[in-house]
């Protein structure tokens, strides 16, 4: 078993087991995907699977400016440019459906309203990419949220379902529900953040999982379970997500539920070495391996993807150990559009320029060249 062999993911056959992980880049004027965005993804089209940058399911769900959404006709047409281009080089692409919840700012929200969440607790130390006091785009402290009402939760579930339908209309091969990195779904999952008293409360594991399962079920009903994946980040502390004693129990039950639903995959993000994670927030390697082993058992035929500090050596060791099915690479794809060839041939990797990660133009986005001797 190697990284470079075909893999059947749901209804989609991948040319290799390498996944391009979702990465926000804030390159979309008017929040609509462009020809430059199409070029960026097409340059990286040799990945077995590309997962798009998080695409907001609504304006309410947005936490970064210049982020291509999936809730208007113009946005659907913009993404169709991207998927057509990726497919023209043989690539496969899922759309990551995203609601940031409290990780947003009033300058991004319609009429300057407060972001919404499972709670009214502000994400301490968290930032959004909005407008500064000077009116310039930049990182700003997240605003204090308001909790969604029970009725509003149902509306957000419908927003996810409609976004899934829109993504297929835009030519995507499937969708990935963003349930990681401290965003809305994890705000419901985490019992130290979720302080609700309704049917989504943290009083029981069933209640904490309810919103996640409702979102997945709604998306699957629209596009088919075999076209749906979900991303999660056990042990992640990004954007003020505190660790809690029931992490293993929570994600074991989540994976069991995903297997019962027959979705395509669960995508785990290891935040141990993620550049935005706080110092000292690293997961224990053994704890993560134990969790992967349990999740793999629970998932059955549902694929398991791991992202985070990935190398060819680590990926193939995890594959051989039977702990994962696919390996996701994030930042290495930024400066190495031909990453698959570089990994396969053991060619050196170019280091990305972090100053060009968010916002800007072609620099640091579509101008990284392929490998040359």
TrEMBL record:
Its cofactor is FMN. Keywords: Oxidoreductase. Pfam families: Oxidored_FMN. GO terms for molecular function: FMN binding; oxidoreductase activity, acting on the CH-CH group of donors, NAD or NADP as acceptor. The keyword Protein biosynthesis does not apply. It comes from the Bacteria. GO terms for cellular component: cytosol. Residues 3-345 form the NADH:flavin oxidoreductase/NADH oxidase N-terminal domain. The keyword Cell membrane does not apply. Belongs to the NADH:flavin oxidoreductase/NADH oxidase family. This is 2,4-dienoyl-CoA reductase.
């Amino acid at each position: 078993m190697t990284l470079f062999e075909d893999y059947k993911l749901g209804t989609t056959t991948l040319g290799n087991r390498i996944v391009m992980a979702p990465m926000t880049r804030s390159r979309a004027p008017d929040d609509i995907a462009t020809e430059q965005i199409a070029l960026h993804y097409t340059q990286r089209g040799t990945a077995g699977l590309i997962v798009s940058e998080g695409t907001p399911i609504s304006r309410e769900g947005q936490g970064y400016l210049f982020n291509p959404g999936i809730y208007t006709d113009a946005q659907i047409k913009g993404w169709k440019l991207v998927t057509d281009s990726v497919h023209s080089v043989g690539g496969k692409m899922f759309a990551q459906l995203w609601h940031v919840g409290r990780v947003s700012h009033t300058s991004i929200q319609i009429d300057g309203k407060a972001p919404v969440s499972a709670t009214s607790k502000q994400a301490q130390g968290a930032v959004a990419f909005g407008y500064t006091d000077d009116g310039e785009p930049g990182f700003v402290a997240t605003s204090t949220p308001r909790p969604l009402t029970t009725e509003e939760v149902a509306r957000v579930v419908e927003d996810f379902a409609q976004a899934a339908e829109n993504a297929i209309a835009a030519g995507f091969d499937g969708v990935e529900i963003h349930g990681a990195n401290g965003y809305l779904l994890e705000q419901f999952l985490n019992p130290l953040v979720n302080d609700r008293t309704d049917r989504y409360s943290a009083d029981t594991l069933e209640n904490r999982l309810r919103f996640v399962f409702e979102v997945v079920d709604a998306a699957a009903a629209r596009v088919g379970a075999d076209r749906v994946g979900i991303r999660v980040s056990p042990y992640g502390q990004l954007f003020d997500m505190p660790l809690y004693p029931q992490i293993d129990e929570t994600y074991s039950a989540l994976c069991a539920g995903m297997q019962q639903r027959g979705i395509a995959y669960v995508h785990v993000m290891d935040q141990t070495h993620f550049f935005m994670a706080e110092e000292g927030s690293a997961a224990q390697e053994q704890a993560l391996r134990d969790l992967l082993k349990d999740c793999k058992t629970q998932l059955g035929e549902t694929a398991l993807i791991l992202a985070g500090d990935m190398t060819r050596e680590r990926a193939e060791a995890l594959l051989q150990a039977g702990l994962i099915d696919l390996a996701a690479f994030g930042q290495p794809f930024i400066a190495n559009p031909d990453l698959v060839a570089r990994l396969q041939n053991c060619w050196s990797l170019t280091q990305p320029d972090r100053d060009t990660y968010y916002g800007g133009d072609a620099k640091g986005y579509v101008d990284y060249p392929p490998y040359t001797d």
